[in-house]
Design brief:
The chain is an alpha/beta fold and 294 residues long. The chain is built from 9 helices and 11 strands. Strand 6, helix 7 and strand 7 form a beta-alpha-beta unit.
């Protein structure tokens, strides 16, 4: 439930003159706190669209992805320990809590982007009375610090294409996920259904310089499978502009007109289960994955 009073007390918040005038007119504390929260929301840059309750929704650049939500619908979060990698403003961490997760770790690595996501995460965390544990300085390559094979669910959405070493990241995530646990993976794919390759975007990632790799669908599924995950379900491929803001729709149109996005225009959501098995296709395995070879 939304705790407007707690949010209004955050920091040394001082209501602007318009709000002080509202107080003088005898408006209730609850209404006043609602207005104060809205004022704080407007002062933050938001990536995620988060429902804070009582009609308050953050103005995120990205509307909620219905395909990730559909993947969440297939998971029983009750009593589970969840790791949300690349949490940004925390949308999926808070969604896991809403669905009954017992413990949620929200991690990101924000030193290179000036921690711009953190104010939004902290405000939403407080407004929702969240118990999620936040670490904005933990790389996906370091998640073993949180405990090997200790998580029931991993959320890995909007991340792999930003990494120089996505396969290493998948190995690290497998190492912290118990066998039988579930992972939700989301990101862009190249529209080539038959071949197995990934586009390397060092020179071509214009205007998004944060992207390194975009795989074909087959390549992405093989990345996942060779990391000791069995794919349970793939959700309908979605054009990113279908669930992004007007700003992002315009940006996508410009990229296509400039021929910057001729081959990459879909995003995939995959739900997979962590497994231990014999892998006849690989004779020399990543050390992180040796415990899962039978």
């Amino acid at each position: 439930m939304l705790d407007h009073t707690a949010v209004a007390r955050q920091g040394n918040y001082s209501p602007p003159a318009s709000l002080k005038e509202t107080f003088s007119k005898g408006v209730s504390v609850a209404v006043m706190n609602h207005i104060a929260l809205q004022e704080q929301i407007r002062g933050i840059e938001w990536a995620h669209t988060i429902d804070l309750g009582e009609g308050v929704v953050t103005p995120g650049k990205w509307p909620v992805n219905p395909h990730i939500m559909a993947a969440f619908d297939q998971i029983d979060f009750k009593g589970k320990r969840v790791l949300d990698v690349g949490t940004c403003n925390g949308l999926w961490s808070f969604e896991a809590e809403k669905r009954g997760a017992a413990e949620v770790h929200s991690v990101d690595y924000l030193t290179h982007v000036g921690y711009w996501c953190t104010p939004g995460y902290k405000l939403a965390h407080q407004a929702l009375n969240s118990r999620a544990i936040y670490d904005p300085d933990l790389s996906v390559y370091e998640v073993e610090q949180l405990g090997r094979q200790s998580f029931d669910v991993v959320v890995f959405c909007g991340v792999y294409y930003h990494l120089k070493s996505p396969l290493q990241a998948l190995s690290k995530l497998r190492s912290v996920l118990r066998t039988g646990g579930l992972i939700v993976i989301e990101g862009p794919i190249v529209l080539d259904s038959d071949r197995c390759y990934a586009k390397f975007l060092y020179r071509d990632a214009v205007p998004d310089r944060s992207s390194w790799w975009v795989p074909t669908r087959r390549c992405l599924t093989e990345w996942i499978e060779c990391s000791f995950f069995d794919i349970l379900q793939e959700f309908p491929e979605a054009d990113p502009v279908d669930f992004k803001s007007v700003r992002y729709r315009s940006k996508a149109l410009v990229k296509r007109l400039l021929d910057r996005e001729t081959a990459v225009s879909k995003r995939n959501v995959i739900l997979a289960r962590a497994v231990a098995r014999h892998d006849p296709l690989c004779s020399k395995q990543d050390p992180d994955l040796l415990p899962f070879m039978e």
